[in-house]
Design a protein that fits this description.
It is a single chain. The protein has 92 residues and is α+β, with helices and mostly antiparallel strands. The protein has one domain (14-91): RRM (RNA recognition motif) domain (Alpha-Beta Plaits), CATH 3.30.70.330. It has helices spanning 30-38, 67-76; strands at residues 18-22, 43-50, 57-64, 78-81, 84-91.
């Protein structure tokens, strides 16, 4: 457990810790996504779903290990990266 997550309990089976992230720059890759959200807390996984033909990002998901961290990120809502805002739209 890192010091970022000290005192936090891992999410239970029913806890929703998967976030949908919108409006990421199209140049953002899966490694970039993981690096960004790993600065906040422990990330279980992340996934970018791209259009097979155009390569544009269709959906982006970040799964946090800790429920409380996912809730904080969800309620924080907006980030600014590369002079472009993106939003957290749904906690699943």
């Amino acid at each position: 457990m890192t010091s970022q997550n000290a005192g936090a309990e891992p999410a239970s089976a029913g806890a929703r810790t998967n976030l949908i992230v919108n409006y990421l720059p199209q140049t953002f890759g899966q490694d970039d996504l993981l690096a960004l959200f790993s600065t906040v807390a422990s990330v279980d996984s992340c996934k970018l779903v791209r259009d097979k033909t155009t390569g544009t990002t269709l959906e982006t998901f970040v799964l946090f290990i800790y429920f409380i961290i996912a809730m904080c990120v969800y309620h924080l809502g907006l980030y600014c990266i590369l002079v472009r805002r993106f939003s957290i739209s749904k906690l699943m």
